[in-house]
Design brief:
Largest sheet: 9 strands, antiparallel
Number of strands: 9
Number of domains: 1
Structural class: mainly beta
Order of helices and strands: EEEEEEEEE
Radius of gyration: 14 Å
CATH architecture: Sandwich
Length: 123
């Protein structure tokens, strides 16, 4: 029987590890670290959860997944290919819908908890 997965005090974790870039960097690659705490199958693909942190920088995103995020710290600005600007700060939650494209500019080091839902064809 499955059990609950917990990652305690995500805002205070001090053992995040370097990870692959979330998106293609525009300019210098910002340092990105993460620590997952759950990986499993969902109804139509894979689910990954964890905590992710990124120093200031800009990345281009072309997402083949859906991701729920809650920002624990920092300031982030997203600009979609259509030119819609969305800013998030600590305490905000949002969803990157599958297929979202644009730029993500980290203005102040960000730390988020996330749940990525990767469809079967992309997993």
């Amino acid at each position: 029987m499955p059990e609950i997965s917990v990652q305690h005090r995500a805002a205070a974790l001090d053992n995040l590890e370097p990870c692959e870039s979330f998106g293609e960097p525009i300019g210098a690659l910002p340092l990105q670290t993460a620590m997952g705490f759950y990986e499993g199958e969902s109804f139509k693909g894979q689910v990954y959860t964890g905590t992710w942190e990124c120093e200031p920088g800009t990345m281009e995103l072309n997402l083949d997944l859906t991701e729920f995020c809650h920002l624990l710290a920092g300031h982030w600005k997203f600009t979609s290919k259509a030119g819609v600007v969305t800013e998030v700060r600590a305490g905000d939650s949002w969803v990157f819908p599958q297929g979202w494209q644009g730029t993500a500019e980290v203005l102040e080091t960000v730390r988020k908890v996330y749940c990525m839902m990767v469809p079967e064809e992309s997993a």
